[in-house]
Every structure is written in C-alpha cells, then in structure tokens.
Amino acid sequence: MASSTKLFSLTLLFLGLIALSNAQSLSLTYYSKTCPKVEYIVKKETNKIIAVAPTLAAPLLRMHFHDCFVRGCDGSVLINSTTNNQAEKDGFPNLSLRGYGSIDRVKTAVEKECPGVVSCADILALVARDATLALHGPFWPVPLGRRDGRVSIANETLVNLPPPFFNITQLKASFASKNLTAKDLVVLSGSHTIGTSHCSSFTNRLYNFTGRGDSDPSLDPNYAALLRTRCSPTDQTTLVEMDPGSFKTFDEDYYTLVAKRRGLFTSDSALLADAETREYVLRQARTKGSTFLEDFAESMVKMGKIGVLTGSQGEVRRRCAFVN
C-alpha cells in the first residue's frame, strides 16, 4: 500500500514538472518570425467585434477560463461534437457560452496572413485579453506557443468547472487543483464586473432557499426582492446584469456590490466567508480597486499557463471547431 501511494505521488510530481516545463516554454516572442503581425491582427478583429457587440466581451473572457480549467488552455472548448463524441462545448456548464463565431472570424484573419502557424488556443487567449481591454480593462502580456488539443469530452466540464453555487471551501479546492491561489480566486471573480447571467444560475437563492419560502440570507434582502421582479422561479431565458449599471465597463464595482451582499451568485457571496478573500473584497471596495487591474492582469497570465501543450504535443488546428 505504501509503495503504491509513493508511486502515485511520484506520478503526480512528474506530471507537475511536465506542466511547469510546458508553461515555461511559452514566450512573448514565439511568433516573432513565423507570424509577427498576429497580435495586431487579433486586436484589430476583436475591436471590430466588440465595437458592434460589446456584450460579447464577457463571454469571450469566460470562454478562455472554461478552456483552461478543462484539460488546460488547449482550445478544446472550441471543438465541435461528433456522432461518436459529445465535446466540451455541449457540456452543461458550457451551454451558455457565446462567441465561437468570433473566434472563427479572428482565426480566419490570422490564417490569411500566416496559414497553419497560430493555434486556436493562442488566439482564444489573445481575444480574451483584447476583449477585456476594449471594455477599459487592463492589458496583460500573453505568452504564446500553446498547441491545440485533440480531445474534448463534455463530462469533463462537470468535474473541472466550478459552478455558481459552490461555497468557499469548494471554490478554493477547485482553484488549488489548477495551481491557483485564494488570491487568484477572488481576483478572477472580479471578471463578473462585465456581462450578464441567466436567471437559472441564481434563482435558487431567491425562492424557498431553506424550504421555508425564504431567500438566501447571505443575499441583501432588498436586492433579492428586486431580482424576484426580474426572474420567476422557472425562468430559463431572462438575462440579468452581473454588475448593474456598468456591466459593459471593466471596473472595480463588482467588489463594492459583493461587500454590500449584492453579488449575484452563491460563489460571489462565498468570497465574504473566508478571511483572505473577504479582506481583498473589502479593500478593493474601500480603495476603489486600487490594485485590482494590476492583480487581474497577473492572475490572467498565470491562468493562461494551466496545462498547456507545447512543442510537438497536440497540433495547430486549421479550423478551431475541428481536429485536423
């Protein structure tokens, strides 16, 4: 038994070293000779998309997160299902994702300049950055050189993506499994400053929360009452702003809302249930996000290195929805 435990530990260590080595293989100058204009092309196309449809910025940022948390940042979230396999994009947590056509549009523009060179995983990472920047969010350097994965399995989304009803213990464990810290958790949760959510992601907090016809006590009762005017118990279609009033601007307002117990999801309110994450929320609310943009940029670079494929691993997909 002891030897098998030791073997398992050594295997985990080995895999961890491979992941670290792959992450270190990414480079800011990866395409400097093979596709030097890639960042210019991606930014130009992304700006055109967001100018017409600013509400796509949040889904594109979220898509990158959902990609990285399942099999690493390998573009597997973009692969279509086949008759023999249900892919990640058809997993329940991803059914509300939008923006696949935008990624295809950017990929087409890049392919025209540099055919068969830039991976879909790298394009998604760049689009997430540029879409955030287009809504006045921070800039962060995106190390490049990710390869595209060939495997995409819907059921893996259920195991790897933290749902909106997770408590703080579950959230910290989920992030720790990806080598992200409690600080990364509270910082990346700040992405909820942009975008919308379907009522179905939080109506459990509004109706009969404990079986006595009440709402979640961790949610401000006045806000709960307001949300009930927007969402019926069975509403599956209505969209609600996650950061009311500034959901198209990437700012620190999210933390002000969470501090007032007006975070939309259980996972937002959960940030007040831990000393470290609560301190961060209250500090950003008090100082008008004094370090939030800088912290967000740092955590995004870190997240973008999760489980990457590099070198001869994987492939560079010609079309993001299809394995070569």
Strand content: under 5%
What's the total count of β strands?
2
Shape: globular
- Could you give the distance between the termini? 43 Å
Helix % is: 40-55%
Family: Belongs to the peroxidase family. Ascorbate peroxidase subfamily.
EC number: 1.11.1.7
Protein name: Peroxidase
Organism: Salvia divinorum (Maria pastora)
Describe the structure.
The chain has a two-stranded antiparallel ribbon. The chain is globular. The chain has helices at residues 2-25, 38-52, 57-69, 100-113, 120-134, 155-160, 168-176, 182-188, 221-230, 253-259, 266-269, 275-286, 292-303, and strands at 196-198, 239-241. With 324 residues, it is an all-alpha fold. Helices cover 46% and strands 2% of the residues. The model has no long low-confidence stretch (mean pLDDT 94). Helix 2 (38-52) packs across helix 5 (120-134) and helix 10 packs across helix 12. The protein contains 13 helices and 2 strands, in the order ααααααααβαβαααα. Residues 1-23 form the signal peptide. Residues 25-324 form the Plant heme peroxidase family profile domain. Keywords: Calcium, Disulfide bond, Glycoprotein, Heme, Hydrogen peroxide, Iron, Metal-binding, Oxidoreductase, Peroxidase, Secreted, Signal.
Write the layout of secondary structure elements.
Elements: H1 2-25, H2 38-52, H3 57-69, H4 100-113, H5 120-134, H6 155-160, H7 168-176, H8 182-188, E1 196-198, H9 221-230, E2 239-241, H10 253-259, H11 266-269, H12 275-286, H13 292-303
Antiparallel strand pairs: 1-2
Short description:
With 324 residues, this protein is mostly helical. It has 13 helices and two strands; from the N terminus they run H-H-H-H-H-H-H-H-E-H-E-H-H-H-H.
